[in-house]
């Protein structure tokens, strides 16, 4: 029995039930105390009691002699003197509203109407010359009328409102705390883990703690991540094996092509073989997941960019670096070097002058790789990030790659929780902008 109760409390349904029970208990305890305090501090009119009192006095007057009626009325008026006997025709002056009635009183009457017993003559909302009254019929010719204070809040409404306020506030507080602890915080934790997740095999990325439903969700997500990782790893191993196996027959084809006597045929065959060989190399490079296995560490980002630009400059390319001489932050040095290298390789293929700039904006490192080439049409900028997609009409060149360079960059930047944006350069060309959060953990 104890295990079942513990199991129920660990579920969201059980926790909601417990919150409701706790709210009822708190509202009952505090509401009773508040009701006693309201009765003691606020001597507000109790309309049900006054209506019963007026009805009782009217019954006594109905059986009294004319002389006794005066004595009964005088005795009843000793407290506040608001009772009077009026002819039945006095009811023709009754109205159900008053232009001077406060809005709060109208709202209270609409939301918390009095009990229906005993109902005064003319109803609960009866006014004469703008003043609220309670009336009871004495006989066929006479009414007993009691005037009420000009402005008041009914005692029953105050008590009911106090209890309602306590229950509402208690329910809101308890459910707010419950929502934060049992729902909002675990879901934010799972969402944060999902944002940082990758498809590599490793420890469970979703923390399995909290209510039964949250634990079940985290466990299912961890299982899904493991299945996806296993599937991707299996396909990657297969593609690597195929790529490696093709290298041997490709080498034999190259040797045979070199023995072809006809020069044009030999050059065409060797050109196709070279192109296939480069495709295999790029495919193997794309399938490498070193950027996923590499750990983040504190390093000098500016130094990485300067070194990459110097290497291209040593090969005769016009590649320059502009930015701070030092910027230490947390990132994956080898992976980010590979991403910057791919962007610079694309830039020198399609432009003659390349400028790499580094700056800090809104707590993020912003790296711009700018060239003066033909650029990329805006409608293709999202598709060029896909593997094996090329925009031949915009960047036509026999030495271009196979559309894997930007895909590798995207994967590396996403592993850093950053993003790659392709923009137009002001005076023509393309800007490949990398936005990286500083101090990656």
Automatic annotation (TrEMBL):
One of its GO terms (molecular function) is phosphorelay sensor kinase activity. It comes from the Bacteria. It is found in: Cell inner membrane. GO terms for cellular component: plasma membrane. Its EC number is 2.7.13.3. It catalyses: ATP + protein L-histidine = ADP + protein N-phospho-L-histidine. InterPro entries: 2C_sensor_his_kinase, HAMP_dom, HATPase_C_sf, HATPase_dom, His_kinase_dom, HisK_dim/P_dom, HisK_dim/P_sf, Sig_transdc_His_kin-like_C. The chain crosses the membrane at residues 12-34, 157-180. Pfam families: HAMP, HATPase_c, HisKA. Residues 181-233 form the HAMP domain. Its main location: membrane. Keywords: ATP-binding, Cell inner membrane, Cell membrane, Kinase, Membrane, Nucleotide-binding, Phosphoprotein, Transferase, Transmembrane, Transmembrane helix, Two-component regulatory system. The keyword Protein transport does not apply. It is a multi-pass membrane protein. Residues 241-440 form the Histidine kinase domain. PANTHER family: SENSOR HISTIDINE KINASE ENVZ, SENSOR PROTEIN CREC. This is histidine kinase. It comes from Aliirhizobium smilacinae.
